[in-house]
Design goal:
Strand order of the largest sheet of chain B: 1-2
Helix content of chain B: over 70%
Shape of chain A: globular
Strand content of chain A: under 5%
Strand order of the largest sheet of chain A: 1-2
Distance between the termini of chain B: 24 Å
Number of helices of chain A: 21
Largest sheet of chain B: 2 strands, antiparallel
Structural class of chain B: mainly alpha
Largest interface: A-B, 33 and 32 residues
Radius of gyration of chain B: 21 Å
Strand content of chain B: under 5%
Number of helices of chain B: 21
Shape of chain B: globular
Radius of gyration of chain A: 22 Å
Number of strands of chain A: 2
Oligomer: heterodimer
Chain lengths: 495, 471
């Protein structure tokens, strides 16, 4: 097919953001809202079309596009496979939900806000589509600009501190990756990753390059001990910003491990597995304990995200089919669940302007519909069977048990802690005694809110019971990934 | 003979027009407007002449003057940059009552000096061009002669620059003494590692050149002169002489010093690292935006020199790409300053920018793009500038230089972010005055458009610069 469908997918939000820029009016700018909603839905439909027309029996990259760019060796190359398409769909699904959510909650400069969200969507889709290291880096870093503005302009009281911390942490991690990308260019003569997979990077370079990529992905993931920017960013960001941050931006790092670190540096990945296991276990247990003690709902969910991402890194570096499929599933599921939880916090925040757990209590008596939805997502977050959260964690743990009992046991302990903080949060917010008179005056979720949360509930439950469509999508790609990895390890061992 | 004159046509045309406009200025009163427009026309005409001239390498006057694609490229860059700087600042010049008819003429004279610098293939011609340029710049720095700070900056610049010119000249004379020639090509043959005296001379020449591009540790004049001179002059200083200075530096490294790479490489690496670090760290505490841009330009010169430090053609090319993109970014940044007027005064403090995003959203977003580009964040052009430089540096396996350079980009990102924070996150009660300066607005928009769309086809600049070093 000659039609550049992936470029269209990437640049459609960008072009529509230009039209929003031209639209007039600041307050109640409905034309801006309609344009952004329409274009993000169109992008979503287009991405579903890509998914529908993909060939899942092949591990090759599909919908390839290649254009001359910087020089003959660094090309603007795009393509999708079974792994990346799901992240693209996650992005295109979450974006319209964010746009709907900000109609009520963003009072000031909504036009600029929508532009930032759409530009961010372009960069996020670009990250998941790119098949060239430089193109990947371009989109990966570019996402910082709109996110910095979203936190800084529309954020809470400590927004400046959080925005700077977010930007500088991520940038510091990424510049080393840039150095590594350039080094790869000189070692292999190309930055096209399909070619790099074939060429295989010599053993002596792998460890350093792996560490450079790791520095970037670890910050973005975020892994303990460089996770400290995430709670700050989440707390200060507006609801839509938190949703995108948790649902999509964090997934870039997990995707990066799958797409770059493991296939390009298999020997180094093997070598550094103990490091990853240690950091993942610390993330799972330590941040779960930290989450228990939080008094701010957003901070609690932010720490729980760090713990959930711990499962993702653990799963990827088991190099087993279950482990890797579990991590991908966990990422998709976390994308849906954390987005929904942040939206839930946003709903009550819009009414009482407080994120403190102590403000609320006994909500169930006054907001029954809201409480139902909140409980569904809290249970999904702790991994209740029948929701997507369970499947991801279960598969990761299955993978981990094949590699190391100790690691798996410790990770399982994290599941218990996860249940503890989620249930305790629910107990304190939804049940209990209402001390705050304001809570009694709150009105229940309105139609748009039910619509946003309902879609997410539907997906969380449906894919919790019937995961096959997702698993089938990336099955072959994951098999291929593991085969290549094992071949590289066995040939590396012979040398 | 006539052929030779043809090669020199841009310079001859420029010289003649400078003298005739000077005559017009002397005999017609209140002629600033006329001369200003005439000067712009002269610049445009010179661009046309250079476009029409051939790119084949020709050396004339005993091989002391070269015309090749290298010099033509830099001449066009200098002319286009001057054209934008000059026209964007016109309203500013008139508002600040420094609209003397000499102003554009002196700028043209400095351009002429730079023409000879980039075309020179001989120490004497090079030095003459450099001095013509420098003398014009001293006058320009103090053109607001009733303003104490402007005069101070002119004197400061003159004293320090004269000292560095002295060192440079001393180096040139040593070079002549130890190699027996003033011609670049002949010097290159004689200048080998064993010729200790000539290597010694190279250090002096390098010091003089480093001063002209304001690289650390010869940068002391930059913040003071940038701050003291009128903004219109500062923007000229920040853009045009940097281009010429870097061009000459590259030329020296490429021709006369090409055989002693191992001797000068370490010096350039040191200068480059020092400039990057100082440019990043010292800018953090600045309150005046011109001072901040001065330190930022020191940092940018550091990155450009990192490309030179590689000592190979691909490195020089990356430096040229860097400086070209730097020109676009700085023209945009300074044009923004011409549009910031509060209570009838042009503002220079960073804190005065607060609330700009609400009062003038279009200007704010343009400034945002320019600042992120200066910080080197993709997908803006500033990223590609750094990308090319570091690609060249890593190709030569100079990993330490690359890592330090990349880390300083993170530090420097901090102060660019600080400006963005003030523009976007802070509120202000005072509103901005509307400024009727359409050319400045236009140049802001053009530079933004270039910075944003550059990523669509970055090879375009590559292809042009690749052709410069073919011979």
């Amino acid at each position: 097919m000659n039609f550049p469908i992936l470029s269209t997918l990437i640049f459609l939000p960008l072009i529509s953001s230009f039209f929003i820029f031209l639209s007039k009016g600041q307050k109640n700018n409905y034309s801006a809202i309609y344009i952004s909603l329409f274009s993000s839905l169109a992008t979503f439909i287009l991405s579903i079309f890509v998914w529908y027309s993909m060939d899942f029996s092949s591990s090759e990259f599909q919908f390839l596009e290649e254009q001359s760019w910087i020089n003959n060796f660094i090309k603007f190359k795009l393509g999708v496979d079974g792994i990346s398409i799901l992240f693209i769909i996650l992005t295109t699904l979450i974006t319209p939900i964010c746009i709907v959510s900000c109609i009520n909650s963003v009072k000031d400069r909504i036009k600029e806000f929508l532009i930032a969200i759409l530009v961010l969507e372009t960069f996020m889709i670009g990250v998941f589509c790119s098949l060239d290291l430089v193109v990947f880096y371009l989109f990966f870093e570019a996402g910082l600009i709109p996110m910095f503005l979203i936190i800084g302009v529309w954020g809470g009281p400590r927004r400046v501190y959080s925005a700077f911390k977010f930007f500088l942490f991520t940038l510091l991690g990424s510049v080393l990756m840039l150095a590594a990308i350039i080094a790869i260019y000189w070692i292999t003569g190309t930055t096209d990753i399909t070619q790099i997979y074939e060429i295989k990077i010599p053993k002596e370079y792998q460890n350093l390059l792996w560490l450079a990529f790791f520095s970037s992905f670890a910050v973005k993931m975020p892994m303990w001990p460089v996770h400290t920017w995430l709670p700050d960013a989440h707390v200060e960001a507006p609801t839509a910003g938190s949703v995108i941050l948790a649902a999509i931006l964090l997934k870039m790092a997990g995707y990066g491990f799958l797409r770059f670190s493991v296939p390009m540096f298999p020997l180094a990945s093997e070598y550094f597995t103990p490091l990853i296991y240690t950091l993942s276990i610390i993330a799972i247990i330590y941040t779960s304990l930290v989450a228990l003690m939080q008094e701010d709902m957003k901070k609690l969910i932010a720490y729980s995200s760090v713990a959930h991402m711990g499962y993702v890194t653990l799963g990827i570096f088991t190099f087993t089919k279950q482990g890797i499929e579990g991590s991908i599933y966990q990422m998709i599921s976390h994308g849906l669940i954390s987005a929904a939880l942040f939206l839930c916090v946003g709903v009550v925040y819009d009414r009482l302007h407080s994120r403190m757990i102590s403000t609320y209590g006994g909500i169930v008596n006054y907001l029954p519909k809201y409480s139902f939805l909140f409980i569904v997502f809290a249970l999904a977050g702790l991994g209740l069977p029948g929701t997507t959260g369970f499947l991801g964690e279960f598969l990761v743990l299955t993978g981990a048990f094949q590699k190391s009992y100790l690691v798996a046991m410790l990770a399982t302990f994290g599941v218990v802690l996860g249940a503890a903080y989620m249930l305790w949060l629910t107990k304190r917010v939804i049940f209990g005694v209402t001390n705050n008179e304001e809570v009694k005056k709150m009105h229940d979720v309105n139609k748009t809110e039910i619509c946003m949360l309902g879609i997410l509930t539907f997906l969380v439950v449906v894919f919790g019971f019937y995961p096959a469509p997702l698993l089938e999508t990336f099955d072959i790609s994951v098999n291929n990934l593991i085969n290549n990895y094992e071949m590289a390890i066995s040939s590396g061992a012979i040398e | 003979m006539l052929n030779n004159l043809n090669i020199l046509l841009p310079e001859i045309f420029l010289t003649l027009s400078i003298f005739s406009t000077l005559m017009i200025g002397v005999f017609i009163k209140e002629s600033f407007n006329l001369i200003f427009n005439l000067s712009s026309a002269i610049i445009l005409f010179t661009i046309a002449i250079i476009f029409n001239s051939s790119n084949e390498t020709e050396k004339i006057f005993l091989d002391s003057f070269t015309r090749d694609s290298f010099s033509n490229f830099f001449k066009i860059l200098i002319l286009i940059a001057s054209l934008f700087v000059l026209n964007a600042s016109k309203v500013f010049i008139i508002d600040n009552k420094i609209g003397k008819f000499e102003y554009p003429i002196i700028i043209l004279l400095s351009i002429l000096g730079m023409f000879f610098m980039v075309s020179s293939n001989d120490i004497i011609l090079f030095y003459l061009g450099l001095e013509l340029q420098s003398l014009s710049l001293y006058i320009l720095a103090s053109i607001d002669r009733d303003n104490l700070r402007s005069s101070e900056s002119g004197i400061k610049y003159f004293v320090l620059s004269a000292l560095s010119s002295g060192l440079l000249l001393y180096g040139c004379s040593l070079l002549y003494g130890f190699t027996g020639s003033t011609n670049f090509d002949l010097i290159a043959d004689q200048l080998i590692k064993d010729n200790t005296g000539a290597v010694f001379a190279m250090v002096f020449v390098l010091v003089g050149l480093a001063f002209k591009v304001s690289a650390v540790p010869f940068h002391m004049w930059t913040p003071d002169v940038y701050e003291g001179a009128p903004t219109s002059i500062t923007s000229y200083f920040a853009v045009v002489p940097k281009v010429a200075g870097l061009a000459v530096l590259i030329k020296f490294m490429f021709i006369p010093f090409s055989n002693i790479l191992s001797e000068w490489q370490l010096i350039i690496i040191f200068i480059s690292i020092a400039s990057m670090i100082l440019g990043a760290v010292a800018a953090i505490v600045q309150k005046n935006i011109k001072r901040l841009l001065a330190y930022s330009s020191i940092g940018h010169v550091g990155y450009a020199l990192a490309g030179v430090a590689t000592g190979v053609t691909s490195g020089y090319e990356s430096s040229i790409i860097y400086i070209s993109i730097y020109v676009v970014m700085n023209i945009g940044a300074f044009s923004c300053l011409y549009l910031l007027k509060k209570d009838g005064e042009y503002r220079e403090n960073i804190s005065d920018l607060s609330g700009l995003s609400k009062k003038q959203p279009l200007l704010a977003i343009s400034f945002l793009v320019i600042l992120f580009s200066l910080a080197g964040i993709p997908p803006l052009a500033g990223f590609f500038a750094k990308f090319y430089v570091f690609t060249a540096v890593i190709e030569q396996k100079m990993y330490a230089l690359a890592i330090i350079g990349l880390l300083t980009t993170v530090i420097s990102a901090f102060y660019y972010l600080r400006i963005i924070k003030i523009i976007y996150f802070d509120d202000s009660a005072i509103s901005f005055d509307p400024v009727k300066n359409n050319v400045a607005k236009l140049s802001v928009l053009i530079s933004c458009a270039i910075l944003i769309t550059f990523f669509l086809y970055p090879a375009i600049l590559n292809n042009v610069v690749d052709a410069l070093f073919i011979n």
